Fold:
Amino acid sequence: MLLRRIMQHLRKQEWTVVALDLLIVVVGVFIGIQASNWNDAREAAVEERQLISRLSTEFETGLALARETENETYQYAVGLDALLTKLDSGEPISQADACELIAGAVVFRFGVTPPPSYSQMLSTGGISLLRDANLREALREYDREVRIATSAADKIYASMIPHLTVVQTYIRYERAPQPGSIDFRPRVRSVDIEGLRNDRRAIAGLERIYVTQTNQQALAHRTTESMEAVVAALDQAEQ
Structure:
């Protein structure tokens, strides 16, 4: 209809009216584009809020697990240090103490799995929804730490296995399964303390395992710090 009117005015050479008609068209198109952009921006803002909410919930849960992993690896290292000190000094060691302290040699904690919403965000490019520069940088730093920790953990675990094989000669494990639960951590039943004390190769193996546990604890600490930074950035973004 409008195009027909414009053609009629052109034939009559009514230039002022033609200019007004064209202006109406341009303004209409502009308003339509702006309305579409506003609607897209509003939908993006809603998606951003929902994503931040999911990330906040999942990262807080993950942070609690990361702190638990860091604390456990620290305790394993402390226990191994105490066991090695007692073995070197010739100090008597009870079976109960030996079973508890040697746990650091037979348990390896891998890092915390990244939150589901975070993994989905990376796969779909959803990070572009996040307008907060500090949050995006915190997530990128976390991603770097996860990649480093995953690669290093595999190498640390591989280096630990040969030494553990030697040490396990002097360890006996519980074989009774626990009904109603799954626990992949081995339960030590007894330790041949004197055999272990007199085998320098086994002692050297324990010392190497101690190094792997301290390295693992350092990796866990770095992951925890990066997750703390993400949680703080998420809290700021939600305000």
About this structure: Helices lie at 2-11, 15-89, 95-101, 103-106, 116-124, 133-167, 193-197, 200-238. Residues 54-238 form one domain. The radius of gyration is 32 Å. The CA atoms of residues 33 and 229 lie 39 Å apart.
